[in-house]
Amino acid sequence: MQLSEREVQLWLVPLDEGALRLAELTADEQARAERFRCPQARAAFIQTRAALRRLLGRYLDLPPLAIVLSYGAQGKPRLDAGMGALQFNVSHSHRLALIAISQAPVGVDLEWLQADLDWRELAPVCCHSTELADLHAATDSEGRAHLLRLWTAKEAYLKARGEGLSLPLTAIRLNVTAEGWQPSIEAPWDDGQGWWLQPLQLPSGYVSCIATPFIDPLIGLRSLTESALTRWAIGPTTPTFSVTP
Fold first, then answer.
1. What is the pLDDT of residues 3-22, one digit of tens each?
2. Cβ distance 220 to 230 under 8 Å?
């Protein structure tokens, strides 16, 4: 499978279908799976990692277990040296996983919009002070949806950088501009330039965002249970994020 320079292919992976593919994981990954105490978390890891190996195998024309992965300083998985320059990122929540594959660095975050999410408690952990002010008058449904949009955008950005949550989400401010939301990174050593964040329209109940170095990436969606490719229809009301000083 081929990817153009600005192309990002997204793969939806249902987590409640089929048997666990433990045999498609390496010995180290199987041992990691066994350390999960929560059966649901264990199953999600096994299914997501097996799906990632199958997908990378398709792009690299290799068997799933021939894919060699290594990890960055913050634990972000990547292809080991000598495996090629393909980039990927993974997120899962509830009964769905999302895998992004690109030739350039990419980050993706996916969250299930829980009806009982205590967004008021999470807001001080996620939001910049100006964003907290914007949430002050929000209803519960508005607050839950808006908080997860902020959360997924910030996490996707940090995952694209390979930082995980090593940087505080409260240091990232998202402002609405003519082009969409524009994050400003409030850290003297990082102005965050060169990244663009695009919210995604996924199945009802999920909130997601992707981070790429492209202002207008070519984004496609596929499912491991479907053969058809659907190009994302990104309308003018869908926010686009750019990272600026």
1. 888 899 999 999 876 667 78
2. yes
Distant-in-sequence, close-in-space partners of 128: CB < 8 Å, separation ≥ 6: 170, 171, 172, 173, 174, 186
- Four-residue CA torsion sign, 233, 236, 241, 245: positive
- Contacts for 161 with CB less than 8 Å, ≥ 6 apart: 105, 107, 195
Alpha-carbon gap, residue 241 to 226, rounded angstroms: 30
CA distance 183 to 186: 9
Q: Are 57 and 101 in contact (CB under 8 A)?
A: no
Dist. CA 230–CA 82, nearest whole Å: 32
Strands 218-223 and 7-14 turn out to be parallel
pTM summary value: 0.87
Written as six digits, the tokens of 131 are 């964003």
Q: How do the domains of the chain map onto residue ranges?
A: 7-242
pLDDT grade, residue 177 (50/70/90)? low
- CB-based contacts of 108: which residues, under 8 Å, 6+ apart? 10, 89, 90, 91, 98, 99, 100, 156, 159, 208, 209, 210, 211
Share of the chain above pLDDT 90, in %: 39
- Half-sphere exposure of residue 32: CA atoms within 13 angstroms, side-chain side: 10
Q: Class of the 7-242 domain?
A: alpha beta
Task: Write out pLDDT tens, residues 121-148.
Answer: 999 999 988 888 888 888 888 889 889 9
Closest CA to 128 of 49, 87, 182, 86: 182
